[in-house]
Amino acid sequence: MKIGILGAGFAGLSVGYFLKKSGCDSFELFESSDVVGGLARSFKWHGFDCDLAPHRLYTDDDLVRDELLSLTDMSQMRRHSQIFIRGKWIQDPVNAIEVILKFLPRDSFRIAWHYLFRQKNPETNFENLVLNQFGKGLNELFFKPYSEKLFGIPADEISAIWGKRKLRVGGLKDIIRRNSRLYFKDFYYPVENGYGAIAEALHAKVKSHVQRNTRLINIEKSMDRAGYLCTFQSDGKSFQEYFDVIVSSLPITLLLGWLGKPLKLRFQSAIQTYFLIDKPHVTKNHWFYISDSHFKINRVAEFKNFADRNAPQDKTVLCCEMTNTDDYSVENVQKELQSLGLIHPEEILDSKIVKIPHAYPIYDLDYENQMEEIKAFCARHPNVHFIGRNAQFLHQDVDEIFASGMNVAEQLLQQINSIEANLPEEYVKIMN
Ligand SMILES: Cc1cc2nc3c(=O)[nH]c(=O)nc-3n(C[C@H](O)[C@H](O)[C@H](O)COP(=O)(O)OP(=O)(O)OC[C@H]3O[C@@H](n4cnc5c(N)ncnc54)[C@H](O)[C@@H]3O)c2cc1C
Measured between alpha carbons, how far is 198 from 33 in angstroms, rounded to an integer? Predict the structure, then answer.
């Protein structure tokens, strides 16, 4: 059975890794870029290891954690993150008591009142979900402006399903434990080469199966066999290859479009602006959010605070994420950092921009209907597996994707075993 894996981001690499680990060699992995790791990759810049926005590993799945830790050397760190709201720095994740104390007396009464006497709204959209959990005061202070900035749509037009995932509404137990995806205190991070070191370690295990600089430009169902005919482009030339089974981590809109199911699902793009700063540190944070809507920056990461083993001592790098980018310019980003009181213009030594076209699936209210249609369509393509953030249109971190990679690989191995079990013995001997 020939398996074609599309995309060498974390999803594609995970499936390849688990297949290989089980002794399966009948797969090929295709990546359009010259580097692997996708959204979870890193790059070197002025001696710093930079990620695409802050990336950290948190998982409560022991099996996943142990397997990932066995791949590359990581250290466990205590989370330092903050939120900048209306001129004040508060703890991240939001702690209602701290917010009330910090915003005394003007906003505090409102926040406390709305928090204590919050009404139950129907859980039909993200805003209602936040109102139910945190009340109107905190919604207006943080959740509404931040999510509207991130997705570019009103908070009451954002799906409740996404809200549940993002807020990780796990109930009181999670809040008390303060050890969930939202409330975690500690996380893991590679000691060298940035977050991308994890994807690089996966790549090292499957390298001989990976074709980089090879872009899928079309896929069609084979007329006479159960599999798919893929058309790739590499070095200006195109070629076709047949696969019995496809594992796709490409944006679902792309793949289903080729297979004859155009979708209205949308992705939010992001621009990451990196600044080389002429001082040892700007903050102590790993990352911080900027909630106020008059700032275009969503979130800033300072990579040196994640791992500084090889970083230049006297300088630091900030990475500023923007998703609402109509009037984007490096100068505007720089001005925002200045107005936060974090840097002086003469401290900026260099800047770099990285654009991410598919950074966030946009979970509008229609998305739930679209997902139902997708399910029905995909049922007709049992030999195509969708895995990863953009292929499943699902807000997932790498640990969740890694676990799905293990599941997909298991399913494929079962399929291979059942094919072999039905073949005459002499064929199996030849194949092995
Ligand atoms: C801003 C941001 C912050 C995040 N923070 C964290 C975090 O702190 N912790 C965490 O664990 N996760 C985090 N994540 C999530 C994590 O980065 C992603 O879930 C994960 O990297 C997605 O992997 P993937 O393989 O599904 O998709 P991708 O990384 O998008 O991989 C898809 C791959 O397919 C390739 N490709 C695309 N089109 C084609 C084509 N036509 N032909 C061939 N190849 C193609 C792409 O080049 C890419 O390499 C964050 C994500 C973002 C955007």
Answer: 18
> Domain spanning 3-39+194-265+365-431: which CATH class is it, in words?
alpha beta
Fold (CATH) for 94-182: protoporphyrinogen ix oxidase, domain 3 (1.10.3110)
Domain(s) of CATH 3.50.50.60: residues in the chain = 3-39+194-265+365-431
Structure tokens at 325: 């980018």
- β-strand pairing of 348-362 with 384-386: unpaired
Distance 392 CA to ligand 1 centre (A): 12
Stretch(es) of the chain classified as CATH 1.10.3110: 94-182
CA-nearest residue, atom 4 of ligand 1: 55
φ, ψ of residue 77 to 5 degrees: the values are -125, 155
Question: Which residues of the chain, if any, have pLDDT below 50?
Answer: 170-178, 431-432
Nearest CA to ligand 1 atom 13: 397
pTM more than 0.90:
yes
Return the bridge partners of 418, or none.
none
Q: Which atom of ligand 1 has the smallest separation from the CA of 12?
A: 25
Residues with C-beta less than 6 Å from any ligand 1 atom: 6-12, 30-33, 38-40, 53-57, 215-216, 249-250, 359, 388-390, 396-399, 401
Write out pLDDT tens, residues 318-370.
Answer: 999 999 777 789 999 999 999 999 999 999 999 999 999 999 999 999 988 99
Residues ≥6 apart with Cβ < 8 Å to 296: 149, 322, 324, 325, 327, 328, 332, 333, 336
